[in-house]
Amino acid sequence: MQNDAVLTMRGISKTFPGTRALDRVDFTLRRGEIHALMGENGAGKSTLIKVLTGVYEKDGGSIWVDGTEGEAHIHSPQDAQQIGISTVYQEITLCPNLTVAENMFIGRSEGAVVRWKDYEKKATAILKNLGIPARARQELSSCSLAVQQMVAIARAVDMNCKVLILDEPTSSLDDKEVEMLFSLMRDLKSRGVGIIFVTHFLEQVYEVSDRITVLRNGQLVGEFAVEDLPQVELVAKMMGKNLNDLEDMQLAGQKHEAGEEVIYQAEGLSSSDSRPFDFQIRKGEVNGFTGLLGSGRSESVRAIFGADRVTGGKVRVRGKETRITKPHDAMKAGIGYLPEDRKKDGIIADLSVRENIILAMQVMKGFFHPMSRAQMEAFADEYINALSIKTASRETPVGSLSGGNQQKVILARWLLTHPDYLILDEPTRGIDVGTKLEIQKLVLRLAAEENMSITFISSEIEEMLRTCSRLIVMRDRNIVGELTGDQLTQAQVMKTIAGGEQGV
Amino acid sequence: MTGAKPKTKSKTIKSGGLGQLLIPLTALAILVLFNLIRDPAFFSIEMATNNSGNSVLSGNLISIIDSASALAIISMGMTLVTAACGGQDISVGAVGAIAGSFFVKVIKAGDTITAGSVILGMLACILATIAFMLFNGTLVAYFRIQPMIATLILFSCGRSIAYWINGSATPQLNSPIIQAMGMTIPGIPIPTPIFAVALVGLILWLVFRFTNLRLYTQSVGINQGAARLNGINPPAVKLLSFALLGVCVAVAAVIGVSRLGQLNHKTLLVDIEMDAILAVAIGGNNLGGGKFRLVGSVLGAYIIQMLTTTLYAMNVAPVNVKAYKAIVIIIIVVAGSPVIKSRLTAMVNRFRAGRVAAAGKGAE
What we know:
Number of helices of chain B: 16
CATH topology of the largest domain in chain A: Rossmann fold
Distance between the termini of chain A: 58 Å
Largest sheet of chain A: 6 strands, mixed
Number of strands of chain A: 19
Oligomer: heterodimer
Low-confidence stretches of chain A: 245-249, 500-504
Shape of chain B: globular
Helix content of chain B: 55-70%
Order of helices and strands of chain B: HEEHHHHHHHHHHHHHHH
CATH superfamily of the largest domain in chain A: P-loop containing nucleotide triphosphate hydrolases
C-alpha cells in the first residue's frame, strides 16, 4: 500500500521560540485519495502545511514525494510547486481584475512572447473538462467566490500537481457551492490527484474524505479510515478527551428564562446596508438572527451597533430614546459587538494581546484618561486566565495567535466593558470544536449569571438552537419569522428560511 | 551524572521593542567609531568665544546636534503622520517657509522687536502652520487622498504663498532676542535649538503619557476599520497627527529663521521633507503606518546630520556630498530591510542553538 503514496512525511518537527509546533509528525498521502487533516486550532495543521509548501523550514524529519529522487528539499513555495505540491488557500490569492484565463496562466509563460489567444483556448478546454461554470475571458471578480476557488484549483491541477492542499476551502461558501466544490474534488481524485483537505466542518469531512489524520498539540494522534472513526470519536480525539467528558459538555437544558425588562428596542431601524426592521431584546435573553449567507442578518446587527451608516428608525435603550449613529454611541449605551470578520474588523494585528483586550474599555474611558500600565496588565491577565487564551505572553502581537485565541481576545475586549447587551456575529466561525463549546457555554453563563442580553449569530443552526431562546429568521434582507419554544427545531428553521409562512 | 541543563534563550528581533532601534544604534556607533579612527579629535569639545562675545561650547559634536535640530523636530511630527495615515507629508519644507513668513510678518508689524512681539510671532506662526496642515489633513482624512498626493499641493505652491506674505525676498530680523533663539542665550554655552528639540520631545512624551494618542494612532494605522468599531474616530486621529506635525514644522521654521536672522522663502527648510521621511525610515518605523517609535526617528535625524558633517570634514566637495550620502543610506536602509532582518534573526538563533548544543555535549 505504501507504494501508492504520493507524499510521505516522517518525523517532521518544527520549533518556534517558546513552542513546539510539530513533534515528530508522520503523514502519508496516497494517490487518488482525499485525506482530511484534522485538529483543534494550534494543533499544528497549518504548520505542517507550511512546512510542506516551503513557507517554513522544518527542523527535523524527511519528506518524500513521488517522482522525485530521494528526499525532497523544499525551501520555498516555488520548490514545492516545482515538485508538484499546490495549495489553494482560504483567501483567494488570484488577481480579481484579470480574466479567468489570465489568472490560470499568469507567471507560467515560456519565453518572452505571451500568446493569450492560445491560453484562452487552453483555459476553455480545462474549464470544460473539469466542469467549472466560468468563461475564459470573464473577469475573475465577476465569478462567485466558489468559482474563483475552483479556478485556483484548475490552475493548480493544470500545473501537474500531485498533491493538492485545500486549506479551509468551504468556509465562505453556501451549501450549493460546497456541493460544486466537492464534485470537483471527487473528479480530481478519480484522476489520481492526492488531496489534503483542511476544514473545521466535521460533516464535510465525512462527506468527501477517505482518510483522516488527527493532530493534537503538535503531535500525531493517528491516521484513520473514515468508516472506522465515527464523528463523535473524531471530536474526542481532536480534543484529547474521552466520550464521557464530551457528554458532560452537552448544553441541553441549560437555557435560562429571560427577564421582563426590555434592554434594547428598535423601530424601523435601517442603515445604508439594511432594510428597516423592528427588533427588541429583554434583559438576560439570548436570541439569534438566522438565515442564509447574504440574508441580511449581519447587516441588521451592524445597524444596531451603528457600524454602517444609520439612515432611519427609533431606538430605545432601557426605555429611553437614544441616538446611535456610530459605534461609540452604541458603546456608551452599553452595547458590545464582536464582528463577523475577525481579521478585517476585529483584531489590531500588530498590537499586543494586552492592548487588544483593553482597547474598547480604554476608548470608553476617553482619550484623556489612559489606564495605568499596571491596570492594563491586571485586566489582560484576568481575561487571559478567565477565557484560557493561549498566548506566549500578554505582550505577544495578537496577529500571531491562532484563530480561536484571537476570537477569545476580542471576546475578552467586550466582556471587559461589561456591556448590558452583547452582539456576537459568528463568534465560532473557523475555530475548533473545543473552543466552540466553551464560547457557547460562556454565552449561556453570561445570560444566566450576569443577566447580559446576547444576540448570537452562527451559520451552524444546531449551535443557535442550543443557545438561543428566540430565533429571528431572515430572508432577502427581511425578517420573515420569529421562532420560540417548541418551534426551535432544525426542521422548522429550515422551513421558515425556505419560505413557509409558519411561525410568523 | 547530573548534566547541567543549558539555559535556552529565545529572543528575536521584533519591531516596537529595542530591536527596532538596533539598526539606527548600530549605524550611529559605526559612524562614531569611523570618525574616531579617522580623527581622534573629531568629537573634542572646547569652550570658545563667539562673534557676540559669549563663551559657548564648540566642536563637531555640538555642531551636529545643533544643525540637526530642525530635522529632528520635523521627524517626530512626520513619524506621527506616518503612523496614523500610512503615508508621508512632503509639504513640510514649503509649509515651513510659510510658517517662517508668518513669524517674520507679525514681528515686523511692530516698530521694534521685543520679547512680546516675538512670542506673538511664534503663536501666529504655530496657529497658521496648524491651519495649513489641517488642510493637508482634511484631504487625507476625509477625502481619503493618498498623503503624498494631498501634500503635493502645498509642496508645489507653499513657497509662493510664503513670498506673498512678506512681499520681499529676504526680510531681516536684527535683534539680540532672535539671535539668542537661533544661536545661544548669553551665559548658556549650549545652542538654543538643542533645547527646542528637548522641549518638543518632552511635550510629546507628556502627551503620550497623559493621553491615548499612541494607542489610537497605532490602532488607526494598523486597522482603521477595527479601530472605528471600537469607538475610535479615525479621521479625527489623522487630523490630530497633522496638527501636531504643524506644531513641529512651526518650531523648526522659527529655528531656521532665527539662526540666520533673516527669512529666505526659497531656502528655508528646503529639501527637509525627504530627510525627514528618511529619518523616520532609518529609525526603523514602518512607512506603511502602525507601530512607531519617536526615538528611532530622532536618532535617524542625527545619523543623517552626522553623515553630512563627516563628509564635509573629509573635504568631500559639496557637489559630491549627496552622492556619498546616498551610498551610506543605501547600506543603512538595506540592513534594516525585512529580508536582512529575518536572515539576521535566523543567524543569531542558529548561533545560539549551536552554542546550546555544544554546551549540552560538553556536559555529558
